[in-house]
Amino acid sequence: MTFSWLKGHGTENDFVLLPDHDGSLHGELDPQFVAALCDRRRGIGADGVLRVTTPAALGLESDAAWFMDYRNADGSLSEMCGNGVRVFARHLIEEGLVTDDDFLVGTRDGDKRVVVDGDQIRVDMGRYTTGGTSKVTTAEGTTLEAREVHTGNPHAVAFVDDLSSAGSLLTEPEFDPIVYPEGVNIEFVERRAAGHVAMRVHERGSGETRSCGTGACAVAIAAALADGHDAAHPRYRIDVPGGTVLVDLTIDGHVHLTGPAVIVASGTMEWRA
Fold this sequence. Notes:
Elements lengths: L1 E9 L2 E7 L11 H8 L9 E6 L12 E7 L9 H13 L7 E6 L2 E8 L2 E8 L1 E9 L5 E8 L3 E6 L25 E9 L2 E8 L3 E3 L3 H15 L7 E6 L2 E7 L4 E7 L1 E9 L3
Parallel strand pairs: 2-3, 4-5, 10-11, 12-14
Antiparallel strand pairs: 1-2, 1-17, 3-4, 5-6, 6-7, 7-16, 8-9, 9-10, 11-12, 12-13, 14-15, 15-16
């Protein structure tokens, strides 16, 4: 099979993009193929795959012209990816597939409004929900209390005095499967200043990544709740290993994510695996 591909990243959370506008080239998008593409030794290497297609090609209803079919690095489906949708939007702009700087992108978590302003892209990630707390345990055996937050994907957010307390995130931290039956992204958060935190994350299906957009949103929400801003609409700066993003909590209960996204390479591949 011969196909075109692109490589891009948002704060070093990197993705392979697969243009497949009518859905006929990659079909069901085999999970083993996705995992092989994402393998950093046997494939192109990435934290996930973004198929560039349309809602109609997948038999979905949407007001968006384009649909981000996102898969984790292990080939599993994921509802949403905050960094991925910015990379997806950058591709649409650069290829002339959209003509306005304000447009919708379809996702499994619904249509997302995207606004492009130079090198920064803002995404209305939609409404979020929060739950109670449960326990997460690091690979080194440290047990922490974590807040449940849903921002398209499920998250467990734990605050620590120092990010090194998270230990190795090559191994998935333990979590409560009753609270998170479909798995969970787990964030460890260190406070830096008022409205300013840093985070590390273990993403379900991908492992530790350099950044996580829905995770940054979840961290800002958990921090706002802890800071007593649940009725306000604050902005948080979130430092991730791959850079910095900004998260705004709006008065109408939405969360907005702003950060950079770039396409760094493209090509055509004859897949021989």
